[in-house]
């Protein structure tokens, strides 16, 4: 929601909403509700509170328990595979006759195509998680820019007011000391100049109440760490999924060409991939449930972090999170006091101009007054921009966008990755079984030995073979004397 800020005749800031942009409202995504509803059981097999609390050891145990479920399934799968392999190795075929495996080959091909589609779902989920993190970092950067803008406006306002007090007032004092003024005018000008100094000090005092909150808030380091972690996570997931697709393609070639060696190699690689898939599935499940616990009630945890890590008042945090007409900006009182002090200084400066214009020339008067007037005008602009920066609309929308990036797209992507890991591991296990059946019906490929065609015992084609008499003459004993 964009807001236009104006200064009324009384020196009070007023906010005029601009049509077209509304304040965003956050609603918990249904996937987050689903993951949040999973039983939270700690290592003592007791139900615990599902409130997101990463500092609580019992809560971390519940996430570890959920992450261990796919790994426990992995142990069971490996035991079953071991038993199956022992049975297959010890089993003796009653006949050496090889059977046709056309139907089995096409079954392997169909399962490979389905597995490739499931891995493609994982690639989609990986991109969805990445887009959600990008949305989060973009919103966080915008929020950090708002905070930096407020910090810059505060610093600029302080510089302008200090310049007025330290430098601009000297020109007014010189004007008040002019011999052209009578004693009454000189006394009034000095008094009014002192009033401007007091107004400037009030402005600095009001701004100082906001400065502590703004200067203690930094998001740059957090954003950088999130970007770096996400890049390596995205790249590692992409490489692993592409590796799985490559093995599936290799098995597809081996199945069509009936290469027994390729089937054996792919079977070993599938076992390795099943182990990695179920381990990553455990990680995805634990992260999904933990993230969903946060997304169900993000305000509570954010309030806790802000209270412990920064000096920002909870009143301002609640104001930005809710951003409703019923909420009042806790900084309003300081900003309005600063604006009122600047307005008083401008009015006092106008009195000085009216009084001094009766005694000194226009050029001398402008030389003394213009620097102070310019600094006060810049201060007014600084306060207006600062009021816009600390208004709840922009901060609240950035906060909601960041939550939607993590809780909507992020959790959706994690769900796709979780399903891809679990289902692909299942299909890879079935392909191992099919491979073990197929390679038993594949014999060794025929090898051709080098033969001397001049060998008289080499069997020949009847059409090209020499007459039998020639063979006899070569091998029969001679009786001629």
Blueprint of the fold:
Layout lengths: L2 E5 L5 E5 L12 H7 L20 H34 L11 H75 L6 H33 L4 H38 L2 H37 L1 H12 L4 H9 L9 H25 L5 H28 L2 H47 L29 H8 L6
Antiparallel strand pairs: 1-2
Helix pairs in contact: 1-6, 2-6, 3-4, 3-5, 3-10, 3-11, 4-9, 5-6, 6-11, 7-8, 8-11, 9-10
Task: Explain what the structure shows.
- A two-stranded antiparallel sheet has the order 1-2.
- α3 runs antiparallel to α11 (392-438).
- The chain is mostly helical and 481 residues long.
- 32% of the residues are buried.
- It has helices at residues 30-36, 57-90, 102-176, 183-215, 220-257, 260-296, 298-309, 314-322, 332-356, 362-389, 392-438, 468-475; strands at 3-7, 13-17.
- The model is unreliable at 1-20 and 470-476 (pLDDT under 50).
Q: Estimate percent helicity.
A: over 70%
Q: Percent of residues in beta strands?
A: under 5%
Contiguous low-pLDDT stretches (5 residues minimum) are 1-20, 470-476
Most strands sheet = 2 strands, antiparallel
Helix segment tally: 12
Radius of gyration: 41 Å
Structural class: mainly alpha
Distance between the termini: 124 Å
Could you give the count of β-strands? 2
Quick overview:
This protein is mostly helical. The chain has twelve helices and two strands.
List keywords for this structure.
elongated, mainly alpha, 481 residues
